[in-house]
Amino acid sequence: MSDDAQHSRKLFRWLWENYLHRFRAFLVLAMIFMVIEGSMLGALSYIMRPMFDTVFIAGNEGAIGWVALAIFCIFAGRAVAAVGQKVTLAYIMQKMAAALRTDLLAHIMRQDGTFHQTHPPGFLIQRVQADVMAINDGWRAVVMGAGRDFVTLLVLMGVAISVDWVWTLVALIGAPLVLAPTRLAQRFVRARAREARDLGARLATRLDEVFHGIVPVKLNRLEDYQSRQYGALTDDLVKAEVRAHAGSAVMPGLIDLMSGLGFVGVLIYGGSEIISGEKTVGQFMSFFTAIGFAFEPLRRLGAVSGAWQIAASGIERLRELLEMQPRLTSPADPKPAPEGTPEIALRDVHLSYGDTKVLSGATLTAHAGKTTALVGASGAGKSTVFNLLTRLVDPDNGFVTIGGIKTSEMTLAELRGLFSVVSQDAALFDETLRENILLGRTDVSDARLREVLDAAHVSDFLPQLSDGLDSPVGPRGSNLSGGQRQRVAIARALLRDTPILLLDEATSALDAKSEAVVQQALERLSKGRTTLVIAHRLSTVRDADKIVVMEAGSIVDEGRHEDLLARGGLYAGLHELQFKTGGETADKRALDRAGRHRKNSAGAKPGSAPPYAASLLSRIFGRWSGR
Questions:
Q1: What are 572-608's pLDDT values in tens digits?
Q2: Given Cys at both, which of 21, 147, 406, 506 links 34, Cβ 3.0 to 4.6 Å?
Q3: Distance (Å, rounded) from C-alpha 359 to C-alpha 386?
């Protein structure tokens, strides 16, 4: 057996063992229908002999009735069997495709962050949609070819051999000539099909990027550029698809050549026997009908080979994807998640993405029930800390603990069940507002839902929506404003009621009015929870219990707002950039005054501001934050 044949068998065995075997009973039923349909053509070719010899040549009028009835029964049986097998196969095909797509999506969602960084959405959409459809078409063609067409061919060859086995060999004289070209065509088709699927994935990725980035496309006048890029990819796809179909068309074309040679041979060899009286006209018509009918299933079987090569390409890709195991998994012997409000700690954590170092010896503690803010320039590693906490990534060295338990010692489900996340990009689905808040939960009472809506200030804008909670939010929440989307995200977090809250630039993209409303909801949400906040706008975190300053993956300072300003380090520099007023910040002026007063304040602790300075700072910051 050739390597290609062995590889195809392995692929089909994988498809059978994982999906098709679930529908064994329906496949048996479909095969029964196929056998009935396939054998009817053999019966029709067989009936040609008595129709010609007994009715037409011998003139037996009494035989007309039963011959006509036999022909009608053949066609009626073929019609019923054809409908039965098509409906049965359609059921199997759709159920298998649904199962394959569902398994594929679930497997993709379980992959870690590195996988999704290297596999763009368009590529994955192509795998889930187009490759599954190609597999469906391929296996159906194979099953029908192995069933109906094979049975048809077998019965027709039996009829032909019963008439004259020598004639049958002559009819198949061209068969050896098509074997080598067919094998070459199969390899060509599989390669071109894989190329076409890759191009299809690139096209899907391009469309995904264009549609999700339609605003920058318009603002930067990129319509023509994107159209040219898409057009070039489309041209390449057309070439690959045409080549694949050309290769598929070669195989039935070779069967036609074989058929022509066979007919010529039978006419030359068998015609003389009929003229001499060695064979009857009925025998020749029965044989000729059988061979004529046989070449059509032969052509379809040739086309099946091409269809299977396209399907095999899809199976290879999906099998590779489904057998790709996520690197981040739950431990075999997990520890239970901590109860109550836990403390969070990073201890000497190092992390790199490839050759890029992201965290270098990061050590910090977020105390239970307190608010800890992470500040620093873009790329300092703040978001990476959030990813470590939720185990979207694991550290190269060091460890992360929650309530004294390492994150790697808990199941992923229990670990992530400890967190609620509100980020700048509130991910909403193209569903109703109610569905976006509940996220599939059915245990939420109306009273609890109203309480959450009020606390998150969602109730404030509900009257503006035509259908209230049942109003569609649009793709990615496009029917809602930024502030409204943030309030929906807060409502989700309130409903989850987890002990840890992660806020990632939750108000940075909002106007002043929306920010004030969202900030109130966030303050209510963070009460009694261990809260970590990422913020570039330092005014939003000045009241945090602790501010952790990060730079280039390291923690360079930490403390309260006033202490960090007093030390005059990186935090003070960032603060000055954001609140510069005539070359001097209000905080700096206040601290200078506080410092002068500190010299005259007996009993003041070193490094701390006296009550007067604290009061003054409070009044200044209160004005800045709109309080």
A1: 888 888 776 434 444 444 444 434 433 443 344 333 3
A2: 147
A3: 12
Rounded to two decimals, the pTM is: 0.69
d(CA 531, CA 419): 10
What are the tens digits of pLDDT across the range 310-365? Answer: 788 788 888 888 888 888 888 989 999 998 899 999 999 999 987 889 999 999 99
Q: What tokens does 579 get?
A: 């609140």
* C-alpha span between 404 and 247 (Å, rounded): 63
How far apart, in Å, do the first and last CA atoms of the chain sit? 81
Q: Residues near 336 by Cβ (< 8 Å), separated by ≥ 6?
A: 410, 414
Contacts of 121 (CB under 8 A, 6+ apart): 204, 205, 208
Q: What does 181-228 look like in DSSP terms, one character per residue?
A: HHHHHHHHHHHHHHHHHHHHHHHHHHHHHHHHTHHHHHHTT-HHHHHH
In 3D space, the residue among 286, 464, 190 whose CA is nearest the CA of residue 473 turns out to be 464
Phi first, then psi, for residue 441 (nearest 5°) are -75, 140
Question: Is residue 406 within a helix (H) or strand (E), and if so which, with residue range?
Answer: strand 405-406
Q: Which residue has the tokens 């109730």?
A: 459
